[in-house]
Specification:
Helix 11 packs across helix 13. This protein has a three-stranded antiparallel beta sheet with strand order 3-4-5. The protein contains 14 helices and five strands. It has two domains: 132 residues, Orthogonal Bundle (DNA polymerase, domain 1), CATH 1.10.150; 169 residues, Orthogonal Bundle (hpI Integrase, Chain A). The protein is mainly alpha-helical and 349 residues long.
Amino acid sequence: MPEYDVRWNQYPTVAEDPAARAWLAMQAGRNLARHTVETYGRSMEDFLRFTAREGVQAEQATREHLVGYVRDLLARTNPRQPNVVHLESGAGLSNATVLLRLSVVRLFYDHLVLDGIRLTNPVARMHWRRRYGHWPGDAPLVRRHRKLPWIPTEEQWQAVLASMQRESPRNRAMFALSYDAALRRQEIVRVNIADVDPAHRLVRVPAENAKNGCERIVPYAEPTARLLAAYLDVRRQVTRERGRLFVSFSNRNLGRPITVWAWAKTITDVALTSGVGRFTTHTQRHLCLTDLARAGWDIHEIAAFAGHRSLASTLQYIHVSGRELSSKLATTMNSLHAWRVQQLAEGRS
């Protein structure tokens, strides 16, 4: 994504700041995903507007200014939950959003340090010592809250499926493949026809489409194969061009690849229709990986299926499934039950 593709009109404050503009242009020049560059741009725009209100140049901001920025983030109203104003109340700007904003600012100051504009980065990282823990005074500005992924109940899942039954063959095929192969939303919209092996029911996720740059090949089930076949019959009536598997059927974008935003809107509409408002494009992936954990898959097998680099990401699905705790509880209760029975037998004798 070259610099001239950056939508500078979306980030006017960044565009006017030489250091921030140079940094964002460099990120675009690294050929990062458009969504990533836009996230960087929005975060920097927000931070620069804060420093302008505080009357300080971003290049000269201190750690005290960053603490003020964090306080400002935590006290804002969440646009999705306008009645809540503080993070501690359970809503407001999410912990993940605050950490994302700080991560972008940290990268910006890393750039300034490397260019010799600053000597230190005010958004310090945690430095750990092997024996004594972290260095004094290096505590992070915001602690990370590790929340387990949300998955629907069986009743909610059935409601979503009932709503999805009324969707087009394309949407039903995308929905099924997203669950079966645990695909992220950017992975499902970028599936090419050449990536699908219908003979063996396999789909390839190229490295350039995967979030962490790790290519993988995952299977999908026979019912999904039938939905894909039905969709392809409809697709041939619109276009016979190869390339992206899932295309638009609207008159404005007829035959062009479906976008992430169009797919997100489809799932949002399904969620609202079904009454399961928390259902998103990522829920199918969460549910699939949790189901694999419940089925007894090894954590390394789930990691390979999901394309996780770190087992820490996979472990959360083991926790959500409750597999290990359930088995331990059953074993414990059986032994306790046997012990109680033995006590009763000894008491009768």
